[in-house]
Amino acid sequence: MAINADKPHLWKRDIALSVDLFNCWFMEFAPTAYRQARMRTTEQVKEAVRLSSDLNGVRPGLLLEHPEILPILRMATAPPIARDRLIGLAQVKQSLVHRLEKGLLPVRMSQAQLGSDLGRICAIITRLLDTDIFPWVGHGASPTEHERTRASTIVADRLCGAIADPVVRNAQEQRQLERIAEFLSDLGYTKAENVPGEALPEMPPGTFAFRHIVVVGDRRKVNIPIDVLIQPKQPRRSRIPLLIEAKSAGDFTNTNKRRKEEATKIHQIRATYGDEVQLVLFLCGYFDSGYLGYEAAEGLDWVWEHRIDDLMKLGL
């Protein structure tokens, strides 16, 4: 029985709750320097949203008065637009976009040409605005302050993503594993010690293990890391443990770039150990409908960390 993959009507709300959960954790535990930069950038994005009438007013006049918000507008689209991509799509000069992003206007361009170029830039941004994070755009509705803050935080993450600290990602993964361990322990499960390596082990009923390496492939051996293995109290007929991949993400872009990894992993494992192997994703953070739809199409299911009780649907 599917857990969440067959319930697209729940995805939008779950995405928002997952983003909120990650953001709360991040703001409390992320390294101080990055946290401060992220908060500062979020305020800048919120100001840009305000200046643009909640992104309903992305017009040439806005860039004439506030050219420095162009990088923010580029990150408010789906997908986010790289500077050179915007130059190509809008068919404007590179020097124009570079000056705008420095907060400057061109000095040797006629007003008519400038207005025309800015119009094309605004048209591209308006057409590609990310309506998953700005769902009110074009519907005549005003967002709540919470919706503004959430959307601004997402755009700020895109702007700050290049300086993400690996320590943050590692800490988040460790926290996810601790949550799973706590959940399983409350159910009477115990952590298995000295789990044999290489193959999927025949674990005792009611046990779990972390960070196990499974070897797949016949001629060319490949090591596949598995975050969590669980042997239910009533093992399945194959006695193959359940596999869980803990996934967290601080921005939507990176998850969509890497969404093929989980599908590749389950295909490799099943090719070696059979189709009865079940790999479930444990998600916290920025996983949008594009990511979820791809994983569902590949036969993968998931449990949201904010609704961890869904693990019970795995027959625990």
* Strand count: 6
Question: So, CATH architecture of the largest domain?
Answer: 3-Layer(aba) Sandwich
Look up the CATH topology of the largest domain: Trna Endonuclease, Chain: A, domain 1
Q: What fraction of residues sit in β-strands? A: 5-15%
The biggest beta sheet reads: 6 strands, mixed
Termini distance?
13 Å
Evaluate the radius of gyration: 23 Å
Q: Helical region count?
A: 12
Helix content: 40-55%
CATH class of the largest domain, named Alpha Beta
Helix and strand composition category: alpha/beta
Helix and strand element order: HHHHHHHHHEEEEHHEHE
Strand order of the largest sheet: 1-2-3-4-5-6
Provide the domain count.
2
The average pLDDT is 88
Choose one word for the global shape: elongated
Low-confidence stretches: none
Q: Can you put this structure into words, describing what you see?
A:
This protein has 316 residues and is of the alpha/beta class. The protein folds into two domains: 32-163, no CATH class; 166-314, 3-Layer(aba) Sandwich (Trna Endonuclease, Chain: A, domain 1), CATH 3.40.1350. 47% of the residues lie in helices and 13% in strands. It has twelve helices and six strands. A six-stranded mixed β-sheet has the order 1-2-3-4-5-6. Strand 5, helix 12 (289-297) and strand 6 (301-304) form a beta-alpha-beta unit. The chain is elongated.
Layout of helices and strands, plus pairs?
Blueprint: H1 11-29, H2 32-51, H3 60-65, H4 70-74, H5 83-90, H6 94-101, H7 111-128, H8 145-160, H9 166-186, E1 190-191, E2 207-216, E3 222-231, E4 242-249, H10 252-257, H11 260-273, E5 279-285, H12 289-297, E6 301-304
Parallel strand pairs: 1-2, 4-5, 5-6
Antiparallel strand pairs: 2-3, 3-4
Helix pairs in contact: 2-8, 5-7
